[in-house]
Specification:
The chain contains 29 helices and 15 strands. The chain is an alpha+beta fold. It folds into 4 domains: about 30-60; about 85-265, Biosynthetic peptidoglycan transglycosylase-like (Penicillin binding protein transpeptidase fold, Orthogonal Bundle), CATH 1.10.3810.10; about 335-585, DD-peptidase/beta-lactamase superfamily (Beta-lactamase); about 600-720, no CATH class. The strands form 5 sheets. It has a 5-stranded antiparallel sheet with strand order 4-3-15-14-13, sandwiched between helices. A 4-stranded mixed sheet has the order 1-2-10-11, covered by helices on one side. It has a two-stranded antiparallel sheet with strand order 5-8. Strand 3 (about 320-325) and strand 4 (about 335) form a beta hairpin. Helix 4 packs across helix 6 (about 175-185). The longest helix has about 50 residues, at about 10-60. Residues about 130-140 and about 600-605 have low confidence and may be disordered.
């Protein structure tokens, strides 16, 4: 059946439009819902991915209190700073309350209300950035600024902004507000490589933070917004103007004084000048090397060194000269001049400065000072060496050959150290490289006798200490004490013996000391002689360098001048005299102790067996203790020293004081000072075998094990044997 015809509206086009819009609207609504759901879940996925990425990044990062290694403070041995302060830790309760109020007002007024992110500030900053089509405001809270300082960079990007927002979120849940504020005030960058308000107060005003005035606090806070733009040294007026801006923003009840008087003082403000000797940078480079050697990580430490400021400042060498002074009893490096690389790493031929080492071997093999050596033209294979002055004397004594540094007799002597010239070369090389420990490049022929071995001033200085010490070479060091940022002593270095040369008699050392004193008094080193200074030494000249290595009873010094056609007597030796004069002036030097048949004293009058007789006959107790330090197990050595000390305590109280000092530096108990015990070189296993290890000792051993396992892994393995 046919139905009624469909009635269409008069306005057909309107009908179709409405139908089409209705249909499209439904599709658009479905599309919008789908897009919203997809966008929502994609956004959530991105958020969680970013959240866990930043969370992992945060967990792998350091504490907010861990300081960058570049912010260490270095001190000379007298406590004066080597370089200007970069970092000085100050506890929050020691900071002026006004400084804290000014800072929070200027940088983060809602610090104690927000959870690391200030939504209002971020929104305001976003609108400003959109308006300017660039990132001109950050809207960061102090927590975000701290996150940026500790974990991120200063780049102004959206990625960094998102990172510091999320890191701030994690920081607020890991630390208290007071901890965050304390970390911020000690880490905020204030220009000129200065981190934190404590260092800035000292650098810019020469004051402790607690003593700053209102105007000084305001200027420091103003610098935060642009440490380089408002650099007080480069742009003092800009820095002052920033202080004015902070001052003008403060409510009237924030400061007691009239603002006008504070403004006047800001106008008149003078910033403490930044001064330091650029030569000190070489000292710092070397300290950094030792920081790594002792396993020091992070920064904010105060590091006291062995460098003597007066000695360093009293000598200025030219660009071709390098020099170093070491305390030959303790191993302390007292000073060095020239580039750090030249002193410690460069390799230059040492010339005749090598001769004392194989002359020492010759004396031990039966030669003496009166032994006659030939001085005439000789040929060794294809090598025809000459004396420096091109003349020949026919024959000379061993003493004359060394004192006047004559080449031909010295080469002859070197070639007869062993049964053949080649065996002699191997014997000399072995003695220098393996026994004495001189690191360098060695030739395989007799040119070795004229010093074609290549090494550094540091290596040769350390090696020469065996002469005044009668065979003992101390371990050298620069860092004597380390304090953490809160002032706690966490590391202390004690003198330690690196090598004890066996097989050389004290008679041979004594003869060499006599000969090298004559080198300075009568021979090639005369220009180094200083009245009232017991200086011994030897010159050396090679094709590209000139040397003088000298020593007193307490120091070894080396000067090396690089260049062609040099004569050590006119180059290296005068520099040595200048350094030696400074040693005498500052009262550093002692005489080389004279060997009065120490061998017979040890055999017939032992300090341990007859302490009174030993001291009364002029025996050197400290020298004796050094010589027998490793001849006895630790506990036995301790008993013998204490027993001998009791016998002489009333007769020789001054000697008892020397023994007490020696014990303090050398006879340290492992459980009280494990690092010192190990550094002194005692046999840990025999020590632990000699004592009863109860439960308390077990607990102590475990604690010590955790302290030393990374620094001294070999000693930690020994402890493992004794831990149940």
């Amino acid at each position: 059946m046919r139905g009624k015809p469909l009635k269409l509206p008069k306005n057909k086009s309107l009908f179709f439009k409405r139908s089409l819009f209705a249909h499209c609207g439904k599709q658009a609504e479905v599309f919008f819902i789908k897009s919203f759901i997809i966008g929502f879940f994609m956004g959530m996925a991105i958020f969680f991915a970013l959240f866990f990425y930043v969370y992992g990044y945060y967990n792998d990062s350091t504490s907010i209190f861990l300081v960058d290694p570049k912010y260490n403070t270095y001190l000379f041995d007298n406590g004066e700073q080597i370089l200007s302060t970069k970092y000085k830790y100050v506890k929050l309760d020691e900071m002026p309350s006004e400084l804290i109020y000014f800072l929070l007002w200027s940088e983060d007024r809602e610090f104690y209300e927000h959870n690391g992110i200030n939504i209002k500030a971020l929104t305001r900053a976003a609108l400003t950035n959109i308006k300017n089509f660039s990132i001109v405001q950050g809207g960061s809270t102090l927590t975000q600024q701290l996150a940026k300082t500790v974990y991120l960079t200063n780049e102004r990007t959206i990625k960094r902004k998102i990172m510091d927002i999320m890191l701030a979120f994690f920081l607020e849940r890991s630390y208290t507000k007071e901890e965050i504020l304390e970390a911020y005030m000690n880490s905020v960058y204030l220009g000129n490589d200065i981190s934190g308000f404590g260092a800035a107060a000292e650098r810019y005003y020469g004051k402790e933070l607690q003593n700053l005035s209102y105007e000084e606090m305001l200027v420091l806070i103003g610098i935060i917004n642009g440490p380089e733009v408002y650099n007080p040294y480069k742009y003092p007026e800009r820095a002052k103007n920033q202080g004015m801006i902070v001052l003008n923003s403060l409510p009237s009840n924030f400061i007691i004084e009239e603002k006008d008087s504070v403004k006047e003082r800001i106008d008149k403000m003078v910033f403490y000048p930044q001064t330091y000797d650029e030569r000190y940078l070489n000292l710092v480079y070397r300290i950094k090397v030792e920081e790594e050697d002792i396993g020091l990580k992070g920064g904010g430490y105060t590091i006291k060194t062995t460098f003597n400021k007066n000695l360093f400042d009293s000598v200025t060498v030219d660009s071709s000269t390098s020099a170093i002074v070491i305390n030959n009893k303790t191993g302390e490096i007292l000073s060095f001049w020239g580039g750090e690389y030249d002193v410690f790493y460069s390799q230059q031929q040492v010339g005749s400065a090598i001769k004392p080492f194989y002359y020492l071997l010759a004396l031990e093999n039966g030669y003496d000072t009166d032994t006659v050596l030939p001085d005439q033209p000789m040929k060794f294979g294809d090598w025809a060496p000459e004396n420096f002055d091109k003349t020949y004397r026919g024959t000379v004594t061993l003493e004359e050959a060394l004192v006047d540094s004559i080449n031909i007799p010295s080469i002859y002597l070197a070639s007869h150290i062993d049964i053949s010239p080649q065996r002699s070369i191997e014997t000399i090389k072995n003695f220098l490289s393996n026994v004495v420990g001189v690191q360098g490049k060695y030739p395989n022929d007799l040119t070795l006798s004229l010093g074609t071995v290549e090494t550094s001033p540091y290596e040769f200085t350390k090696a020469y200490s065996l002469f005044p010490n009668y065979g003992i070479i101390p371990s050298t060091y620069i860092i004597s004490e380390v304090y953490d940022k809160k002032g706690n002593l966490i590391y202390k270095r004690y003198p330690n013996v690196e090598r004890k040369i066996d097989g050389i008699s004290n008679d041979s050392y004594a003869t060499m000391n006599t000969l090298m004193r004559k080198v300075v008094l009568e021979g090639t080193g005369q220009r180094a002689n200083v009245l009232d200074l017991d200086l011994h030494g030897k010159t050396g000249t090679s094709d590209l360098s000139a040397w003088f290595v000298g020593y007193t009873g307490s120091e070894v010094l080396t000067t090396m001048v690089k260049g062609e056609d040099l004569l050590s007597s006119y180059t290296a030796v005068p520099w040595a005299k200048e350094i030696a004069t400074s040693l005498l002036y500052y009262g550093q030097s002692e005489e080389v102790y004279v060997y009065l048949s120490l061998k017979s004293i040890q055999e017939s009058i032992s300090f341990f067996e007859s302490p009174i007789d030993f001291v009364s006959t002029g025996g050197n107790v400290v020298g004796y203790l050094n010589s027998v330090k490793f001849d006895y197990p630790y506990k036995e050595l301790e008993k013998k020293i204490n027993a001998a000390q009791r016998e002489i305590q009333y007769l020789y109280p001054d000697v008892v004081k020397e023994i007490e000092q020696w014990k303090k530096e050398n006879l340290t108990d492992f459980f009280k000072e494990p690092f010192s015990f190990i550094q002194n070189g005692y046999d840990l296993e025999s020590y632990l075998n000699s004592i009863t290890i109860d439960k308390d000792k077990q607990a102590q051993l475990k604690e010590i094990y955790n302290q030393i396992k990374y620094i001294y892994p070999d000693q930690a393995k020994v402890i493992e044997k004794f831990i149940e």
